[in-house]
Each structure stands twice: as C-alpha cells, then as structure tokens.
C-alpha cells in the first residue's frame, strides 16, 4: 500500500472541513478524488502533504505513520504535491525552474531534464523563457514537470486540467498514462469527471468533507445516480 488515509478530520481554525475522510492508493495506481467546488479535495491533498495537518485520524505512506509531518520531510520521503495554483518561479526560466527542483534518489529510473522534455516536448521549446511569461497550460505542465524532477513515488495532482483547453486536457491525460506506465502512483483531485475517469483506475467521490462513494472507473461510469447527486454530471 502506497497511501492510507484513515478517518481524518481537518479544520481551518474553527471550521470543521473534513469529516472522517478515508482513502487508499496502492502502488502503481492512478486514483481520482472527485468532487464539486468546495467539496474538500484540496483540503484532503493538503492534509496528506502536512500543509493542513488533520486534528484526528491517521495517514500512512508505505506503512509508515506520517500524520502531521512537515511538508519538506514528506517531499524527501517521496511525496510530491502539485497545487492548483502552480507556484512556479516567475523570474526563473523554464530550465532553471526544473533544475532547482532536482532531487537525487538511489532509484534507477531517475527523472532528469532529458526525460522530462521527452514527456513534455513543448517545454523543451520554451526552455529559456521566464516562468512569468508562460501561458496557463505551459505553467501547468511546468508545475508537473517540476514535481517529477523531485523523483517522487507518489504524486498528488490538484485539478491539473482546470482552465486548460480541451486539446491540452487530452495531452495531459496521455502524460498521466505515461507516468503510470513509468511506475508512478498518482492521486488526482478533479472536478473534470470525464477526464479524471479516463486517466484513473479507481475513484472516490467527496462531498461536504465526506467520502460518499468509491469504486472502480467502470462502477463510477455506470452509477448515474451517484454522479448526478454529488457531481452534477
Ligand atoms: N484557508 C481556508 N480557510 C477557511 N476555509 C477554507 C479555506 N480553504 C478552503 N476552505 C473551505 O473548505 C471547504 C473545502 O475547500 P477545498 O478547497 O478543500 O475544496 P475543493 O474540493 O478543493 O474545491 P475546488 O474544486 O473549488 O478547488 C470549502 O468550504 C472552503 O470554503
Ligand atoms: Mg481545490
């Protein structure tokens, strides 16, 4: 088991946001966390990454208790979070943004610039452009590429398709499937249900801070009732 989230309760100040959220991701899986605006997807990701540690409940990474650990320690252990607001360095070029994110591991299949540019050829073309001069789609790609430079085992992707043109959404789906083939484990938060289901093996539906459903992609596709109730699609 790569990731186990067990009955977590997360708060912002006095606001109780997550109510006993549980989910599991096995090694090599792509699992999506689906939910509407404000459902609790980002809060779940941030809880895992130690940015908003849960007040109750447990999180385990490769069977090790990591609840409430500092984000940088989790990054060192091999978890990488790509937030929906990207946070790339505007004054650095694309290439520099990638270089500073490099983290050496003892793994054999390390990510380096060459491999990154194979996955995202469009980034190679804009290697010397400043981060601040990129389009939304280019920034999204760079944010994911940067996370990969840290050689993570588990990638937490928060709404990667948000604001992307349909052609880029499809490109991203292909990139996610290549990552899966490369052995990466992914937890994908999405409002874009169709896209997420194309990339995933299994999925969870979160609504009002609670997991309402989980199942295989096939089960999620067939269950119109649940999708209409919690996802409005
Ligand atoms: N910093 C914060 N302080 C207080 N409340 C917050 C904060 N961030 C989020 N919330 C609230 O927590 C709830 C869950 O928000 P969250 O961002 O986790 O949802 P989400 O599923 O990621 O939504 P979206 O699809 O819009 O990104 C919402 O009601 C939101 O208003
Ligand atoms: Mg969010």
Topology:
Elements: E1 3-12, E2 15-25, E3 30-34, H1 41-48, E4 56-61, E5 64-65, H2 71-77, E6 79-82, H3 94-99, H4 113-119, H5 121-125, H6 136-149, E7 154-158, H7 166-181, E8 185-190, H8 193-199, E9 202-207, E10 210-216, H9 217-222, H10 224-231
Parallel strand pairs: 3-8, 3-9, 6-7, 7-8
Antiparallel strand pairs: 1-2, 1-4, 4-5, 9-10
Helix pairs in contact: 7-8
Magnesium ion (MG) binds next to helix 1.
Characteristic terms for this protein:
binds magnesium ion, 27% strand, six-stranded mixed sheet, single chain, 36% helix, Rossmann fold, 233 residues, 10 strands, binds adenosine-5'-triphosphate, alpha/beta
Summarize the structure.
The protein is α/β, with parallel strands linked by helices and about 230 residues long.
Describe this structure in words.
- The protein has a domain of 155 residues: Rossmann fold (3-Layer(aba) Sandwich), CATH 3.40.50.300.
- The two termini are 31 Å apart.
- Helix content is 36%, strand content 27%.
- The chain is globular and about 45 Å long.
- The chain is built from 10 helices and 10 strands.
- The mean pLDDT is 93.
- A hairpin with a 2-residue loop joins strand 4 and strand 5.
- It has a 6-stranded mixed β-sheet with strand order 6-7-8-3-9-10, with helices on both faces. The chain has a 4-stranded antiparallel β-sheet with strand order 2-1-4-5, with helices on one face.
- With 233 residues, the protein is α/β, with parallel strands linked by helices.
- The structure holds adenosine-5'-triphosphate and magnesium ion.
- The site of magnesium ion has 5 residues, from helix 1.
- The site of magnesium ion (MG) has 5 residues, from helix 1.
